[in-house]
Amino acid sequence: MIATDPLWVPTRCAGLARLADFLPRAGRDYADRRNFDFGPADRSNVSGLSPYLRHRLVTEQEVVQAVIERHGVRVAEKFLAETCWRTYWKGWLEQRPGVWSSYRSEVRAGLDSLDHDSSLRDRFEATTTGHSGIECVDLWTRELVEHGYLHNHARMWFASLWIFTLKLPWALGADFFLRHLIDGDPASNTLSWRWVAGLQTKGKTYRASPENIARFTEGRIQPREAFASHAEPVEGSPIPPIRPLPAAERFDPRQPFALPLTEEDLAIEALEISAKSPVEVAGMLANDRSELWAGAPARDFVRGALGDALERAGSWFGVPGVNLDRAAGEAIVAWATGLNVKQVITPFTPVGPAREQLNRNEAMLKKAGIRLIQVRRGWDDELWPHATAGYFGFKKNLEPSLARLGVFAGSR
Fold it and tell me: Fewer CB atoms near the end CB (10 Å): N or C, the chain?
């Protein structure tokens, strides 16, 4: 059994229980208190659902449906917006995958710079080990590494201080978060760091201030160090043009298939294929979220979540579940060939490390005469195409989209 933080047990059952516990507070209570960071000992003002949503142990549609039924759209507007921001970021990046490729290149360039710039290397190592010299940054670093989580407001403060005060490369900061956050999502994490740096919304940056930190920690943190007085946008490549989403793939339900699962979507009970039984189910762990080693809380949560999904899949489909070592292409081809299947079906994997691995696997499966089919959820099919510009344009289409999905979207 993998040891995990008791606050976030990596199972669907725990995620649904957390949703049920949070529901009474998802309306006005959440709107009034969501921006306050009371520290790791008190997360009562936020849902704590992000690790479960990130890996789809619980789906966005399940959460939104439950919250609307309890509070209505207007009362729960702030929480619904926070939940749907995750969908917006995914849809935005899915239509601009070049931004992810550029980020990966910037991480590699940043790591190379550490080998040639001793001052930069010293600042990077000091900050990532909790010795930056800025008390609140060091506090958040220790919290991140130990717990795998930071309040969203603290993430913004940290990113701003990393970029504008400590003068560290934004991409290395995004990589640091992705390595340690148990809810580290390639889209939300990358694009949020880009937004702080002034790369996402042209000319707009986020500058942390001691007063804001003191206010929203209720005096728990009162910075005394000098922060950057200006936050000039970071230079970067222009945002590439939109690439239309590919049509959703279809599979032949009459033919036998194997079902590999990645960390991106583990609510197998709510999949389009849940009424069909695969020959076998496998868990594929992509270990290349970074060239540097991921933190223990993040690694343990993913492993536990995959294990939980395999166990549930065994009960749901009545078939065995196996782990494929590092999701290597050779292992997947041997697995599918051994099962004598010609189609391998998996939940759609959005842009990120798992998608990169899956793309390599797809090429190898194709050579073996096996088709890889990614089944996209109706939630993503409906909402992602609206993530073409800013969030407010996306938001205008939200209620009609929820109505089409069968989610109550009344005005109460």
Answer: N
201 and 120 inside one domain: yes
Mean pLDDT of 72-94: 95
Place of tokens 């922060």: 227
**Rounded distance between C-alpha atoms, residue 354 and residue 349, angstroms:** 7
Write the pLDDT tens digit of every residue in 28-48. 999 999 999 999 999 999 999
Whether residues 35 and 126 share a domain: the answer is: no
Domain extent for 340 = 259-376
Same domain assignment for residues 64 and 50: yes
SS3 109: helix
Last residue of a domain, one of 185, 201, 216: 216
Q: What stretch of H or E contains 372?
A: strand 371-375
Same domain as 268, residue 191: no
CB 310 within 8 A of CB 323: yes
**pLDDT-wise least confident of 53-57, 121-125, 324-328:** 324-328
pTM: 0.95
Nearest in space to 382 (alpha carbons), one of 402, 363, 368: 402
Q: Are residues 209 and 292 in the same domain?
A: no
For residue 373, the SS3 value is: strand
Res 73 pLDDT > 50 = yes
User: Is residue 371 very low, low, confident or very high in pLDDT (cuts 50, 70, 90)?
Assistant: very high
Report the alpha-carbon distance of residue 163 to residue 233 in Å, rounded: 10
Structure tokens at 366: 């194709």
Judge if 194 and 274 occupy the same domain. Answer: no
Domain check: are 87 and 117 in the same one?
A: no
Task: Answer yes or no: do 115 and 70 share one domain.
Answer: no
Distance CA 53, CA 13 (A): 13
Report CA dihedral (314, 320, 323, 324) to the nearest 10 degrees. Answer: -130
C-alpha to C-alpha distance for 227 and 230, rounded to whole angstroms: 9
What pLDDT is attached to residue 279?
Answer: 94
